[in-house]
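Troubleshooting: if your tokenizer reports a length mismatch, compare your output against this known-good record of 266 residues.
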Amino acid sequence: MKNYNVTEIKNLVDASKSALVVVPTLSIDAVGAALALALTLKKQGKEVKVFCPQKTDQNYQKLSGLELLVDSYTNSDLIVSLDYPIDQIEAVSYNDDGGHLNLVVKTKSGASKVETKQILINNSGSTADVCFMLGDESVMDTAAASMVNQGNWILITPAQVSKAWAKATIFDPDAPFSEIFTFLLPMLGLNLDMDSGKDLLIGLRVATQSFSVNVSPETFEAGAICLRATQPDETLPQMEATPIENVEKTGGIAPGTNKANPTPTA
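Known-good structure output:
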């Protein structure tokens, strides 16, 4: 069992309402890990998006959560926020003043006016409360790489690097992303389910060529954890199993029934 220092990461995740997961370099291992993280965060009610600049192909179709994956990024959005009670605002509108855009905020009768110091302007595309970078952001184009200039970023990397923008870093040179996240998610209080466990298991199998290369005892342990997560919920009603010795005696079970196949006659 791996043990990462997750105190700062857990604080950021617990305090967040939205999350962005970034995969700079396309791979089934990285995308599977990113989607597993996104799915577990979504189950906690957080708004989640996974960004990868390259498009996926049919090799990724078995992964769950692909609807959360986007391949475009813009940092040109302008967000104007007011540090002002929303229940004191009556209406918000805009008008064209000779080619200049005016945003009009009408407060309710008797409410205090909006002060200049209460107006917050943000033109960054990275607006999530917590952001994860799976690898090196410098391989992306300049516009996308600049997303790390704002926000609470967590770096997950196999390379021993120091990034000034990272609030926390997990460095593990001996494990694929899918192995790292198999251990990391429970440490953050995020529970694996059938979908997230499947994504991590697919990533593990691809990254290790079906557990034949670049493996350690922890790799097999991670595989067992993911495999258990993909099993049906034991609390749900299950079909009654037929003892194997009965199957051997009768020649098998007829498809869709609990009855033995008829014995063939000459």
